[in-house]
Write a structure and sequence with these properties.
This protein is mainly alpha-helical and about 80 residues long. Helix content is about 65%, strand content about 0%. The longest helix has 25 residues, at about 45-70. The radius of gyration is 18 Å and the shape is elongated.
Length: about 80
Amino acid sequence: MRQPSKQQIQEWAESPVNEFLVKAIEKYCVELNEGRGVNAYAPGDPHRTQESLALLNGELSAWGDIIEVLGGVTSLFTEEEDDGN
């Protein structure tokens, strides 16, 4: 698969559709964090609380990665070089 050029990534990141998508995902993440973050506490069940918070953190981390890609973080588009290890 051919890697996109830096110019293509920049044009993509600055497109109105992409910018709208990023804003929608950011809004979703705020709502997700405010809703599930507040409701993660399970009185008397620390394991359930910990599991809820771990799932929330994982989901927010994944959405953060998606936002970076949509934002045009060029390092995510470059193939890692094989260092022989």
